[in-house]
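Long-time lurker, first post. I've been practising inverse folding by hand and with some scripts of my own, and I keep getting stuck on stretches where the structure tokens seem ambiguous. Below is the full token string for one chain I'm working on. Before anyone asks, I'm not after the true native sequence, just a reasonable design that respects the backbone. If someone could post their per-position residues I'd love to compare against what I wrote down in my notebook.
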């Protein structure tokens, strides 16, 4: 989701650029993201782009000469290369030089943009650094730098047919994103040079905030959704910010040191690397790299539909789903026949748990009663163990306990390793390492599989992405927990626990967890 903002601005030139509200200005205190240092030019007073010029000059992204900015002068290809380099902070330079480059102030920037695939030169392998840059050329470079893919849509500009084929997709994408509009007569004028003021305004409209220094930044006064946010330093913490667009991490930033606290983010987190942009996920306040080797979620969030009784279905006739519950002794008395009559197809029943302080394994006092009642009502049964295992040995002990308890029962749904974090300073698992947890899950699940049952891992987004290394448990089916109307998990799952507070007939004394499964495990051999 990218917020589109338009503020009417009288621009004498043909290209009108949509304008975004920026939370910083020349008098903003140093605790704000852009760390503004006031800069003034003698030739920008009263100019329509003054605020944008002042902002980016204060950040050191654009500079003048002898107190002049020359806002209406055309921008050269060398100048836009330097501006983009100062914004994106590329570190890797191409070893292959353009044919027409000589040692000069712009060499480093151009060679880094070449390595990033932003500036590609012409058929003669020339960069033409001193030539003015046209509007279509500038938009192409900016789109590439911000990882905006070319779009196939139709342009409404009256001169759209004059836009070069290599630029049209980028102009389309930038227009669709709300960053460009035509002039009063709806012309784009693709081959007209871009002015210095126009270039700065484009960046000002696209980028809400840049973080170029380590520190904690509070956006509490800011209202609305931000567009692009650029993080170009390690150890940056952002507070109280709603970001509708993408967060871009520049080359070399350590994503593990970035914290996004009380931040609502609706776009993507991408990081530039010399081999292209990689993706990251926001998990709690952390930034976690995407594992491109894991299967992405198969399910369309918009197709999940919940009725007035809280029963979830999936609105795709080609997909069959199954409604289920999971229970422990906390549910008290259960009438399983009433649950069956409401469409409950399967139930996960807790076998037992390990104490989070003592480490002692305890049986669930209702297990035998529940499993007999569910099977008698014709409900398919799986089981789970609430684990607080510290290592593989304890996980093996838990698996053996489960196998002993379920012997003789018709278990047709999975046997689940349910390891969770505990919100207590005294929890024995507080400092568990990812390696130890993955080993524990594998030992538990492999032990269950060897006994002829289907193993499964249960966890929520935080545990799965901050505690596990998901590639280490991909051999096992996954039961995902997130209490929302639509799942937001990036990776695939087999069962979704979508609620923990359902009220169903047959469970008079408590709420109950509810689930939707995409697999009928009773029909699948382990």
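-- Answer (accepted) --
I ran through it position by position. Result:
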């Amino acid at each position: 989701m990218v917020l589109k903002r338009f503020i009417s601005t009288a621009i004498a030139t043909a290209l009108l650029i949509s304008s975004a509200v920026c939370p910083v200005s020349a008098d903003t205190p140093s605790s704000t993201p852009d760390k503004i240092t006031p800069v003034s030019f003698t030739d920008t007073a009263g100019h329509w782009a003054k605020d944008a010029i002042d902002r980016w000059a204060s950040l050191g992204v654009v500079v003048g000469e002898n107190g002049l900015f020359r806002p209406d002068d055309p921008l050269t290809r060398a100048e836009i290369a330097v501006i983009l380099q100062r914004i994106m902070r590329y570190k890797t330079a191409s070893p292959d030089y353009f044919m027409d480059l000589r040692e000069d102030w712009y060499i480093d920037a151009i060679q880094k943009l070449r390595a990033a695939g932003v500036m590609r030169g012409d058929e003669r392998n020339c960069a033409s650094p001193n030539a003015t840059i046209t509007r279509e050329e500038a938009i192409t470079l900016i789109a590439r730098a911000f990882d905006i893919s070319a779009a196939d849509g139709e342009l409404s500009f009256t001169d759209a047919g004059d836009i070069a084929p290599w630029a049209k997709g980028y102009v389309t994408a930038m227009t669709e994103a709300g960053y460009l509009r035509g002039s009063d007569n709806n012309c784009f004028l693709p081959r007209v040079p871009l002015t210095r003021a126009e270039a700065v305004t484009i960046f000002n409209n696209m980028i809400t905030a840049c973080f170029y220094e380590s520190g904690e930044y509070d956006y509490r006064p800011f209202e609305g959704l931000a567009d692009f946010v650029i993080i170009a330093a390690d150890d940056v913490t952002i507070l109280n910010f709603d970001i509708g667009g993408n967060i871009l991490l520049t080359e070399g930033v350590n994503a593990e040191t970035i914290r996004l606290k009380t931040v609502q983010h609706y776009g993507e987190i991408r990081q530039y690397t010399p081999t292209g942009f990689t993706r990251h996920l926001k998990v709690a306040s952390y930034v976690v790299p995407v594992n491109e080797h894991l299967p992405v979620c198969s399910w369309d969030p918009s197709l999940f539909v919940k009725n007035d009784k809280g029963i979830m279905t999936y609105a795709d006739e080609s997909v069959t789903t199954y409604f289920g519950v999971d229970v422990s002794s906390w549910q008290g008395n259960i009438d399983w026949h009433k649950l069956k009559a409401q469409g409950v197809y399967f139930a996960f029943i807790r076998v037992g748990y390990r104490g989070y302080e003592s480490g002692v394994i305890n049986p669930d006092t209702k297990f035998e009663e529940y499993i007999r009642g569910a099977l008698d009502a014709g409900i398919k049964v799986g089981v789970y163990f609430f684990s607080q295992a510290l290592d593989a040995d304890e996980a093996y002990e838990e698996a053996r306990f489960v196998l002993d308890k379920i012997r003789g029962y018709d278990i047709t749904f999975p046997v689940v390793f349910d390891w969770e974090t505990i919100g207590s300073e005294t929890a024995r698992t507080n400092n568990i390492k990812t390696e130890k947890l993955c080993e524990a899950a594998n030992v538990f699940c492999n032990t269950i599989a060897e006994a002829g049952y289907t193993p499964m891992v249960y966890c929520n987004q935080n545990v799965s992405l901050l505690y596990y290394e998901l590639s280490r448990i991909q051999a096992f089916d996954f039961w995902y927990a997130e209490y929302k109307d639509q799942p937001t998990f990036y990776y695939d799952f087999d069962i979704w626990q979508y609620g923990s507070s359902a009220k169903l007939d047959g469970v008079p004394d408590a709420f109950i967890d509810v689930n939707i499964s995409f697999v009928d495990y009773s029909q699948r051999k382990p």
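A couple of notes from the structure itself: The longest strand covers residues 346-354. The first helix runs from residue 50 to 58. Happy to go over any region you disagree with.
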